[in-house]
Amino acid sequence: xxxxxxxxxxxxxxxxxxxxxxxxxxxxxxxxxxxxxxxxxxxxxxxxxxxxxxxxxxxxxxxxxxxxxxxxxxxxxxxxxxxxxxxxxxxxxxxxxxxxxxxxxxxxxxxxxxxxxxxxxxxxxxxxxxxxxxxxxxxxxxxxxxxxxxxxxxxxxxxxxxxxxxxxxxxxxxxxxxxxxxxxxxxxxxxx
Length: 192
Description:
alpha/beta
């Protein structure tokens, strides 16, 4: 299914295979194992990160998954009934949360294809993230190693460093197809 959706719309799927388990564990490590956190997942696709987030939450808190692909959203909702799957664009995150009477997210985990986004789209999604993330919240996203030096990827990293007080770059997950690394961003420094 993933490859078929890539063929149908490579600019929104932007990968030929879902993220592997090593990348999923690293990208979701910020999800707390205690408390009642609000966790938002952007671009969950077929649910590689969703599964790990659900394991970490173990029935606690709220997990809202925002997916723009209707087929992926339906499959995700069927497989994970505890997840609030929303068919929407990540740029509309404030509206998605407001409709659920949620004011902020404690953790936002992104599986979005940043390298496929134009500058205005990157900026729009990052503005939505910083506007909805709690002041002590964490935003994680990943980049493929082979695209890290491309203009969209460099622009993303510059924007992350401008929008967050701290941006940590993890080790490379070589076992992922393709190899990837995670950006772990804390303390948003601007909103909207």
